[in-house]
Amino acid sequence: MKKLRILSALITAVLVISFSAYAAPATIAPGQTGGNGNFIVIQNPPTDKAATFDKSYIISGYGKQGVNVYIYKLENGTYVKTDYSWTIGASGMFFKKINLTKGTNALICYAEDGGVSQSVYLQITYLGTDLTNKINDIRIGLDTLK
Amino acid sequence: MKKETIKNIILTLLIVNCIQLTGQIWLNEKLWPEGYDFFEFTAQFPFLDGIMSVFKKVNGEGEISDATLSPNKVVINGGGARIISYDGTDTFTSALNLVVPCIKKIAAGENVATDNITVSQWQSMLRAKSIYINLGFETDGKNVGDIFGEPLGDLNKISGADSIIIYPELMLNCTYVCFKSTDSDYGVRYTLRGHSEQLTEFIKQHTEGQKNDHSFAFELRLDKDSQQEDWGQRLVTFDSDVLLSMDNLAVSDIEVKNVFHDTETLSKRADEILGAFGYKPSQIRKTVSQDGVVTYVENSATVKVSPDGMVEYTAIATDKGIKVADTKAQPSQIVNEVLEMAKKVISAADLEDTIVLKLRSPLNDTPVFSYTANFTRYFNGLPVIYNKNGATENYTLTAQFENGYIKSFKMMLQTLSVAEGKTAPKPVLDTINSFCETYNSNDKITVENILKCYYVENEGTYKTKWCIMYNGTVAVPK
Domain containing A141 — which CATH number? Predict the structure, then answer.
């Protein structure tokens, strides 16, 4: 009976550690190198930088079926996991609408499969809905990209 | 003249008439000209019509709406936000009303320029403030006016056009009207003076404050083939103009009822429907199968009326069909003939509904020997697609024209009404994934359209779903 309990505890511990290792982290430090996975290709935006006059942006792409994808956003110097996440289905494609804040939105598309990860860095700037906002309120500078 | 003589004359005439009528029946000759209706003849004489109205058969007042050539949808692009409107809504009607004066001017030769445009120019206009009209079928310049419900003249540069963009260029105070046309590299653009302010105001009014919930496939770059990756290659791409919706709007459910409530009604109505094809029950052998299908077999054709509402006419050979033209006919003429037959069937089936049938076959003015006229029924602005014993049928009405004859005619009759509930279909990406899960092939497919529909079978209440159109077929994933 005692051996059975120890065995059960060991199995549980292994499972917990495994899942913990595979779960996406709550935060990612800027400059932290992405994993060496190759699971997703981002189609929209076509490059790592984009700008829009809309409050939302649709990130699209394709990837390996079954891969989990999470969106991280830079806040106070750290990339924090947002509520946007999905699992790539049988079609291999994805498109997700995400809401933007005014100004530069520094994002990471984090794909994970079986403990291996891939990070794709994106920067989407919300320019506001009128020219005045664009000129007066929004400052797009290199310091916001750090 | 003696009474006896008069009696003899009358009797003789009756006997001769009887013999002559019998001769005509035996020789399979119709007793009166095509389209002759005794009751229409008597209607010209009010006194006679009053008497005959006692005997007049009263059929249903159901009819086909005049929206057969009405566009599939109108998309108002606000340069970010975008809304889709369907037939039957005020926005749809208002948008088309704005377009009509522009088309009239083009047909009258008042455009200041005409040129061809490329795909990137077409897509730039879709990204900006514009009105996009998806017709749902291909048409040529002569029939464009029919789409808008009035004669607008001949736009002779247009051929195989299935969509239109109206783009107001406010700064230059001009308007571009573009047709996606198979005649040119991608499209034909007509430039008109004016209209830009009115159009811009209309677009602003309808898109300001709206969300960006709809994207064309080219905007998301999902119309491009993917490279071979470590995990394989993506099988599904989209046509550039496929609109992918991310809204979660609930749409009314619909209730479906069979037209024929019992075998007696079916039998009676089947006899009336037979008349729509030019036959009389007394002329034809009638049988009823175990599953209730009423079948009429005649030397030249078979007519079947099923309990679920399916009406089928099939000629045994092309030249035994229903003659509508010499040998060739213009598709527009064929479409009109088929719709006339459909109207008679609807009336004979005693339907009271106004049925919206939209053409889904190419429409042009080049006479053809062979043509298939396909129509999809629309209800509440959405197409109705049928699940017939596991197979998906996109068309409510299909007729085959060959060498001057309607060789076959197939139409589904059902009564549709709005049900109490409302449902939002599952996300479009989930639908695409479900489709791929059951798609048993490694062949790449290009999705031609993905749209909300009602997928119906028998009687019951049905919620809206997404349907995927590819390679000329339709799939409605669970």
Answer: 2.60.40.10
